[in-house]
Amino acid sequence: MPAGSGDVYPKFRAAAVQAAPVFLDRDATIKKMDDLVMKAKEKGADIVVFGEAFVSAFPIWNMVYAPVDQHEFFKKLFENSVEIPGPHLKMIGEVARRHNVFLSVGINEKGPISMGAMWNTNLLFDREGRLLSKHQKLVPTWAEKLTWARGDGSSLRIVPTEIGRIGVLNCGENTNPLARFTLLAQGEQVHIATYPPAWPFKRMGLAGNYNLTEAIRIRSAAHSFEGKVFNIVSSCILDGDAIDQVSKGNPDTKGFLERAPPPISLILGPTGEMIAEPVIGKEGMVVADIDVAQCIEQKQAHDIVGYYNRFDIFRLEVDFTPNLPIWPKGLHEEAPPEEEEESNSEKLND
Which CATH number fits domain 11-347: 2.40.50.140, 3.40.50.150, 3.40.50.20, 3.60.110.10? Predict the structure, then answer.
């Protein structure tokens, strides 16, 4: 075929950062993120991805303490969570703008209404520092329910960008086939998956513990292979300071956290295979070049959002309506839902 004929699809470089936040210190964590984004940019990254709840802690204490012993951690986490809109949202967006990258980062989000509600949220910014999407984890997993509220369907959307159509899911959502299919059915080409620094599920020595490393690898490959998409996977790390603060001098708790199966960060192609060397159990960065056009050939075999499905048999209905504590009626003329949604999206960047 003549050179230059046909459509051209995005090519870009991605960086998945595996790092520890500055435990329960929002400002210091954003500063550390800025430094790491600069290093990723020096490696040529167009998009930089950080792990689940990177700003500024995954609530690992939910897994090791009874609820009556968690109050101090919950309060400190709320005090260091990010309000949307708010000044720390702008600070994170400024990191993306300053380094001219797309930036994906997991945060603890708090709203302007409740003095206690928090969400496990992923933020995606463009090169100008504008917030493109805010995805709240739909269902907190297991002990996470002690900290996070449930998200709603309003954020289960893909985002069209110059580097492809991007979708995001947090941790265990990547095990939810309906959530994953919802993104794929909107034309997802690049998936972002974020994970925690540890997942201690059973006491050490008991059979059947949760192998975080393998769990991340298996479901990451599954989504890439099933959807024929690229998958940028980033996890956080528990550093010594976080372990010391959570264990509070208890050697058993400290050892329990230190010996938990480690996280992994990786980047996979549309065959489900890794396209760069992963980082396991330590701070580091995975960098890989992505050519979205490589998805085309793989869809000849299985295209589950195209010909390789039976939409006359299967039907998925998704409610994208946001969950709000109050719906005002009669105070002003109500805008149509689609207009209201656009207005709310604009407010995220205020």
Answer: 3.60.110.10
